[in-house]
Design brief:
By secondary structure, the protein is mainly alpha-helical. It is 59% helix and 0% strand.
């Protein structure tokens, strides 16, 4: 087990993920999980590294160099989800007690946030502004496997697992657990979870734009919005649930409309 990295002399960490006290009292600092560097970074790094092996319809990139064809996309994506979940599971002991208890409205807020995401992504797509990165792969299993193929629904189940479980956990651990606290203090485990400031909102927006160039306008709004949710509840689980709510609603929208370019 990776050792913890509290600074010498720090007070004992309180029950992480605790709700802010009532009556305007000051919340105790939340130093986050044990081994915060590994716990907050490893899942997303794993996801990104595995994602570099995903093939594209046009070819190119590492997948083309390794001879991974476009037809192998479902298997490559399944592997990406599997290794990400493995990384999350590996960090699981350090997450226990930190994530907190769910707040009832955060998943619903995430579902509502799919509206500006879809609207702004559509506006950006119509403008042709993609920051030079082009659109997403938009793998459509109904077209790729053919009508009535038994492979379609298993792939969609794996896609849902990635959208609603792997990505929300990995990305929120990184963005809200690490990045938006690191910009406040390099020893980010000293910064209470949910700390909100202009630099925190800017960091969230910059990350969103940099990692979601085809939906940069949407990301510039959505990622700061979830940082606001973090500031209201002070619990990592609520950011994960908001993220999962958005992704679940987005997946439903894509299935209903065939807008695979959003995924």
């Amino acid at each position: 087990m990776t050792p913890s990295v509290p600074a010498p002399g720090d007070p004992p960490r309180p029950g992480a993920g605790a709700r802010p006290p009532a009556d305007g009292a000051t919340a105790p600092p939340d130093h986050g999980p044990r081994a915060p560097w590994v716990t907050c970074l490893a899942p997303l790094v794993t996801y990104m590294v595995a994602g570099s092996f995903l093939p594209s319809a046009e070819g190119g990139g590492l997948a083309a160099t390794l001879g991974i064809p476009w037809a192998a996309y479902p298997w490559a994506y399944a592997l990406q989800v599997a290794v990400t979940l493995a990384a999350i599971g590996w960090c699981g002991r350090d997450l226990v007690g930190w994530l907190g208890r769910p707040t009832w409205w955060t998943a619903l807020a995430g579902v509502a946030l799919v509206v500006p995401w879809v609207v702004l992504a559509t506006v950006q797509r119509g403008s042709g502004w993609d920051l030079g990165f082009g659109a997403r792969e938009g793998f459509d299993p109904f077209a790729a496997f053919g009508a009535g193929s038994p492979a379609t629904w298993p792939f969609l189940a794996v896609r849902a697992l990635g959208l609603v479980v792997a990505v929300p956990i990995a990305e929120e651990l990184f963005v809200r657990g690490f990045l938006t606290r690191y910009v406040v203090n390099e020893e980010f485990w000293r910064v209470p979870f949910g700390t909100l400031s202009a630099v925190v909102l800017a960091a969230a927006a910059v990350y969103g734009v940099a990692t979601h160039p085809p939906e940069a306008l949407a990301a510039a709004v959505w990622f700061p919005a979830v940082s606001w949710i973090a500031s209201r509840t002070r619990q990592p689980i609520d950011c994960i649930l908001a993220h999962a709510g958005t992704n679940l609603a987005l997946g439903a929208y894509v299935l209903a409309t065939g807008s695979w370019w959003l995924m």
